[in-house]
Amino acid sequence: MTSIVLACVAIVLALPSVGSAPQTATADGRPRSTHHAVPWRATDIDGHAWSSDTLHGRVVLVDFWATWCAPCLEDLPRLKRLHARQGPRGLTIIGVSLDRATTRDFRSWLQRQAITWPQVREAGQYESPLARTFGVEAIPASYLFDRDGRLHATSLRGDALETRVSALVEAR
């Protein structure tokens, strides 16, 4: 019986945690994602083009959300803190809104909430080109990329998001 329990524990410990990417080590022993780069392009509501290529060298968090999504709204204070603390150190957050409101109403909402990172809105919500590129089926959905453009983790929230972003930013 004890050997069965130990075998089960070993299997569970070997499984990757939710929201993590498979890891290998770099020459200096630091963990490195084994995921490949995910090429993507988008234009924010101010007309600025963003892509995986133009953001190379920065840690990037692509955050799919909407103003009607309660869990998304719960994440906003943490995202504001991350943007303020880690933005100057190499983090770029790209919000991808699945809202149906007019651009004018959406801009007004962003201004009232003091959300200053770029926001993308594409027609089609879950069927939009960007949502389809990332395979978004529900929100909130986040995709964290390292400085080389490799997908490092998905669906991170709360403390796990903050910890992973900070580790990637500091990993220069």
From TrEMBL:
GO molecular function terms noted in the UniProt entry: antioxidant activity; oxidoreductase activity
Places the protein is found: Cell envelope
Main location: other
Residue ranges occupied by any Thioredoxin domain in the UniProt entry: 31-172
Signal peptide residues on this chain, from the entry's feature table: 1-21
Pfam family, one: AhpC-TSA
Entry keyword annotation includes Repeat: no
Protein name: Thiol-disulfide oxidoreductase ResA
InterPro entries: AhpC/TSA (IPR000866), Thioredoxin-like_sf (IPR036249), Thioredoxin_CS (IPR017937), Thioredoxin_domain (IPR013766), Thioredoxin_ResA/DsbE_sf (IPR050553)
GO cellular component: cell envelope
Keywords of this entry: Cytochrome c-type biogenesis, Disulfide bond, Redox-active center, Signal
An individual GO BP term: cytochrome complex assembly
